Amino acid sequence: MVNLQIIHNMPHLLLFICIIFLTLFGCKQQPAAEQSEPAAPAISTNAGQDEAATGAEAEAAPETVRNTDAAFDLMNTESLGSLKLGLTQKEVLAQLGKPDAKSKAIIWEADGLTHQEWNYKTKGIVLDMSGQSENDFTLGSITITPPCTLKTKVGIGIGSPLTEVTNAYKSYIDPELSDTAYVVAGSVYGGVVFTFGNQKVSSVFIGAAAE
């Protein structure tokens, strides 16, 4: 026989069960919500690191610019005796006279200028003269070898020891391109390159060794 009291109380019992179910369900969901919140700061942290890295790169950039400027400054201010880059052909002829030999004038694709090599064999001097035409040549690079006796502004010339060169140009030397055979002061894109034999200077080049 069906208990009428149970049937009478059934709606209240179902309501009570629903309340318990909702309470338990809510308790289980709460930790998940709490666990998901800490994920947001991770983005901010990474963003901060990215900004710091960007800032570091921005601070490092001027260093490259300063080195490049120093290289070209050395190339344009250094000299061998009274020979320096930028002299006109008239000034070169006044100092050295006519060269023993001249190469054929050719246009270089790298800069679009006409170039001609002037070779002073008896003096151990080779010059690259360049310009829009042969009529407006200026001195573009200088190479000296024995028996040349010209010296740089700090007194380096053919026969100078490696140690003297490294001490004289230590603030300009590119360590990645220099060893006991070559010392690059400035850069190959503009500077002074010393070549050595038995740790003594065998040639000096002023100019741009690479375009």
Number of domains: 2
Task: Give unreliable regions as ranges.
Answer: 1-10, 27-66
Shape: globular
Quote the distance from N terminus to C terminus. Answer: 107 Å
CATH class of the largest domain: Alpha Beta
Instruction: Sketch the major β-sheet.
Output: 8 strands, antiparallel
Based on the structure given, which CATH architecture of the largest domain is correct? 3-Layer(aba) Sandwich
Give the ordered list of helices and strands: HHHEEEEEHEEE
CATH homolog superfamily of the largest domain: CAP
Beta content = 15-25%
Explained architecture:
The chain is α+β, with helices and mostly antiparallel strands and 211 residues long. It contains 4 helices and 8 strands; from the N terminus they run αααβββββαβββ. Strands 1, 2, 3, 4, 5, 6, 7 and 8 form an 8-stranded antiparallel beta sheet that branches. The radius of gyration is 39 Å and the shape is globular. The N terminus is likely disordered.
Which helices and strands appear, and what pairs or packs with what?
Elements: H1 4-36, H2 39-77, H3 89-96, E1 101-102, E2 106-107, E3 114-120, E4 125-131, E5 138-144, H4 162-168, E6 182-187, E7 190-197, E8 200-207
